[in-house]
Design brief:
Layout: E1 9-12, H1 19-26, E2 32-37, E3 51-55, E4 59-63, H2 68-78, E5 83-87, H3 92-95, E6 111-115, E7 118-123, E8 126-131, H4 136-144, E9 157-161, H5 165-180, E10 186-196, H6 202-213, E11 217-223, E12 226-232, E13 235-240, E14 243-246, E15 249-254, H7 259-271, H8 273-290, E16 300-309, E17 313-323, H9 330-337, E18 345-346, H10 348-358, E19 369-373, E20 379-382, E21 387-391, E22 396-405, H11 411-421, H12 423-428, E23 433-435
Helix pairs in contact: 5-11
């Protein structure tokens, strides 16, 4: 089991120091990095940190669907300290008897986790720095010396949809027929948009996305020239001590232009029978996912149909928790709950079969989960939504969006909801972004 080569050392920042910009600039020196960012958003309560920055790679594991979770168990046993990484949606083929293998726009390994060389945690006016590479004091001096040099886009980004609007509408109607036939109750249907963008400054783009979206589970992750820029409002799974909790999001409405309109829209979402139906079905699915590992009688719905407000949208969120007995492996719990119900449907397996059949492209990293394992046994993963994926080698930028389809879904409204969900991302591109509507 590895340990950090030095104890965590705390440093105090000069007043007014632009620490977020400095940590983003630090990533430019590394081919492997991850930043987890609460963006100052306390919608889920006070965050454990404002930003956590993992730089460099001390050790890593990457795996395809098949034995990925067993490999992750071995990697976790080897490293009991901080581990960062993701599970992509493709791991469904390992968890269930599924075989869908459509290509996604940006190709990442199905699973990847790494132990960083340097870990920086920012809270208030303090930085806590641990390092396997160089003394923490040296790293702190490097941080203080950083100067923001981010470069905005100079060319327009034209996002081409992976399927025509009419195709999307037809497939939503096909999903509704499956619901009428009793095949499923709900299915999360997604579509992707792809643009050609050469020489994209991903640190600049993440900075803009986080500034507009202010999402509590934001991620900036880079691995060998491929980048995830994620402004997720959704926490997938959290384990603290023996308590596991999940926070499915189902139900979305835009923010209002005035306080009065905003309040009215929030109440409209709270009272929406359609959104409540979507939400409660996923709550039942999550309860079913957690029950096999929970102490008898400990599964609880702590919040039902709560409305959480974010920068661009209001969301309907429920919270389900359970108590884990001693000896339960966290990775078994993660595997059982994955992929998350909010991005699949109910019943989950049949919904995923139809997703494989109906969606035009593979999801890949989109609708997977990014997070960390901590040295005190903590685990925290988001849902990878509201995200850009970028591959510098081919100059391609991808963004996806989806929504839950139920019996009374209106296909045209569902299409517009997809565009609403990526609106915060497109605002980050300013006047340089355009969507082609086929």
């Amino acid at each position: 089991m590895s340990v950090w080569s030095s104890e965590s050392v705390t440093f105090f920042l000069p007043e007014g120091f632009p620490v977020r910009d400095a940590l983003l600039m630090m990533t430019r020196s590394y081919r492997h990095f991850a930043i987890l960012d609460s963006c100052g958003n306390a919608a889920y309560g006070p965050p454990a940190f404002e930003m956590m920055c993992a730089l460099g790679c001390h050790d890593a594991m990457a795996a395809g669907a098949g034995t990925a979770f067993d490999q992750l168990k071995a990697f976790r046993q080897k490293h009991g300290d901080w581990i960062f990484g993701y599970c992509s949606y493709n791991l469904k083929n390992e968890i269930e008897a599924l075989s869908g293998e459509k290509k996604s726009d940006i190709d990442f390994p199905d699973m990847l986790f790494f132990v960083p060389e340097i870990l920086i945690q920012w809270t208030g006016n303090q930085l806590s720095i641990s390092s396997k590479a160089v003394p923490p004091a040296f790293i702190f001096e490097r941080i203080l010396a950083q100067v923001w040099t981010g470069a905005a886009l100079s060319n327009q980004v034209v996002l081409q949809p992976g399927e025509a609007r009419e195709t999307y509408l037809e497939r939503v109607d096909a999903i509704r027929k499956h619901i009428i036939d009793g095949d499923i109750y709900e299915l999360n249907y997604c579509q992707s948009f792809l643009a050609t963008v050469q020489h994209l400054d991903t640190a600049w783009l993440y900075r803009e996305v986080s500034r507009y979206a202010k999402a509590p589970f934001s991620v900036y992750f880079g691995w060998e020239g491929k980048t995830l820029i994620c402004a997720s409002p959704e926490r997938f799974l959290r384990i603290e001590g023996n308590r596991v909790s999940s926070y499915p999001v189902k139900g979305t409405i835009r923010r209002g232009a005035t306080p009065e309109e905003d309040k009215s829209l929030k109440e409209q979402l709270r009272c929406s029978e359609k959104d409540r139906a979507e939400n409660v079905m996923i709550v039942d699915l999550v309860r079913n996912d957690l029950t096999p590992f929970a102490k008898t009688g400990s599964v609880r719905v702590e919040e039902l149909f709560s409305i959480y407000s974010f920068e661009q949208v209001h969301q309907m969120v429920s919270v389900i928790s359970a108590i884990l007995p001693d000896g339960v492996n966290q990775i078994d719990v993660l595997r059982r709950a994955f992929p998350m119900g909010s991005m699949t449907g109910a019943p989950k397996v049949r919904a995923m079969e139809l997703i494989d059949a109906l969606e035009s492209k593979g999801r890949g990293l989109y609708s997977g989960a990014f997070g960390y394992f901590g040295p005190q046994g903590q685990l925290d993963f988001n849902v990878i939504i509201r995200s850009f994926l970028y591959d510098e080698a081919i100059g391609k930028l991808s963004v996806s969006a989806g929504g839950a389809i139920v019996y009374d879904s209106d296909p045209a409204q569902e299409y517009e909801e997809c565009l609403l969900k990526i609106s915060g991302l497109l605002k980050a591109l300013g006047n340089q972004a355009a969507i082609i509507r086929k």
